Amino acid sequence: MGQFRLHDWNDVRLVIACAEHRSFAAAAAVMGIDQTTVSRRISNMEAAIGRPLFTRRRSGATPTPAGEALLERARAMAALADDFEGAMQGLTAFQTPKVTVAASEGLLTYTLIPALMGQDKHELPLDRRMVTARLPKLAFTTTPGKADISVMATSPGDLPKVSGAVHVRRVGTMNFVPVASRDFLHELRGVSNFDDLAELPLLDIGIYRAIRGLDAWNGLVAGKQGEDVAVAPNTPKLQRPLLGGEGISILPDYSTLYEHRLAAVDVETPSMAVSLWLVSHEDTLREPSVRELYDLLAGMFTASAWYREK
Question: What CATH number did the domain enclosing 298 receive?
Answer without folding.
Answer: 3.40.190.290
